[in-house]
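Re: the request from the purification team.
They wanted to know what the chain is likely to look like in 3D before they choose a buffer screen. I agreed to run a prediction and write the result into the notebook, where they can find it.
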Amino acid sequence: EISVKLPGYYVDLASLESQNQALPVIIKRYESELMTLPKKSADYAQLQLSTTVTQDIYNSLLKYRYQMGMAESMAVSSIYLVEPAIAPDKADSKHRHPDLLLNMIIAIVLGAPFGISAALLLEYLDDSVNASDDVKALKNLTFLGSIFRLRKKEAKLINEADPRSPLRESLRTIRNSIRFATTDKPPRSMVVTSSVQDEGKSFFVSNLAILAAAEGKKVLLIDGDMRKPGLSAYFNVPRTIGLTNFLVGDADIESIRLESGVEGLSIIPTGPIPPDPARLVESKKMHQLIKDMEEAYDLVILDTPPILAASDAVIFGGCAGGVILLIESGKAKKKHISDTMDLLSKAGINVIGAVLNKVSTGRHSYYYYYQQYK
């Protein structure tokens, strides 16, 4: 019986040995496939997310398409053509055409009075000061002269300008007017201010000081605008130390007095902008400084803030010999100048006069005739 079964056992043994050899290969193959499962799971999740997003976008597009279809159907006009328009025949008695001559006469007859009336109304409502006659018409204000609007290429300072430039002639006229206006007692110090901002104060005081120094006078220029200083830019002097340092006691007068580069002209810049300029302006030290400088110099000129913007110019004017009001043509309003004069009058300040700045140089202006004569 064993002999009969033994061949079968050998066959089973051979089969098992064959399976034993094949199983490690199969196990290894499944192990390698198991290692790829995490990546396949991640890829599947990404594909599933992309499918969801795409489906949402598709649904949104379907929704927008439906909404646009509804809007388009509502926007479609219900107007339809009943009968096409046909140009009338010129021979037709009903045909009419505009009479150009008649229309022109009507336009002239009706348009001219309206145009003239509108121009007169605008002129009446215009409260700005544009010409010297406007300044002369103001009460209690002496007109000292005009400065024409400079071109972009023209020099801003008279020491750099042509000796025959209109700027020099204008400033000489203003200088002579100041002398005639103060014949009794020429002031040793003067304040230059304006009614509103950016009317050209720093430009004017710089040139006035240079002109006075050119006459052989010893001139001191003080930048008293502690809110928006602009004097340093004209002479290229630093503003790191100046008037504010002296007033708070951090510097003496010699350290803040700088040379301008123009013979006979010294400058005291503003210095660091203080948090409370009015307190420094009202200080006794500021008043004493002006008095001391009047004794040391032939002429002291102060550049100050606009009167309607700050009260500094009124305080400076009470210390100085007089005030010059600078007015920009076309910008300053008569009401502003009137309010300014009221403030100066109530403070008992001597107003030397007014200078009109940036006057337009039209064909019929003095500037044009001067250029032709030159």
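For the purification team: The beta strands are 143-148, 189-194, 219-223, 258-259, 265-268, 299-303, 323-328, 351-359.
Please add any questions underneath this entry.
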